[in-house]
Design a protein that fits this description.
The protein has 4 helices and 5 strands. The chain starts with 20 loop residues before the first helix and ends with a helix.
Length: 140
């Protein structure tokens, strides 16, 4: 530790400066020693996992295509639906199946929005959960 008790110019003010370099060196040495002496801990969690089971065979879902043309006529897999009751009956039958089919709704961009919204609402009421709109870039 060093101390400066004045300057050589003869000023009456006492100047007291402490050299902190040795203190910083000691602190760094203590920090390094602390890091070296800390034991390395391994963090692990023991888990009881169930035994692996064979994969179930993948079953491809049936795909039902509902098209709506520019005249707002609804088609179920290419067959025109004469009225809403028949469309709803087909949707109820599809919803009651063991594995529900995927519904691909493909509206024409000139189709009436009311018809598209009706088909979407009817499929939801019937209980169909796998539905997607294809070609919606044109529709919007």
């Amino acid at each position: 530790m060093g101390m400066n008790l004045g300057n050589s110019s003869g000023d009456a003010d006492v100047m007291v400066d402490m050299n902190t370099t040795p203190l910083i060196d000691v602190m760094l040495v203590l920090l390094v020693m602390l890091i070296i002496t800390i034991p390395i801990q391994l963090h692990s969690v023991n888990m009881n996992m169930p035994p692996p089971s064979p994969n179930k065979p993948l079953v491809e879902p049936e795909i039902v295509k509902i098209d709506i043309d520019e005249n707002s006529v609804v088609y179920w897999n290419g067959a025109a639906m004469p009225n809403r009751a028949e469309l709803e009956a087909k949707m109820m039958t599809a919803a009651a199946q063991q594995t529900q089919p995927e519904i691909h709704l493909r509206p024409n961009k000139l189709a009436k929005y009311e018809i598209v919204a009706y088909v979407m609402a009817a499929s939801q009421r019937a209980g169909l959960v796998k539905m997607g709109i294809l070609g919606h870039e044109q529709f919007l």
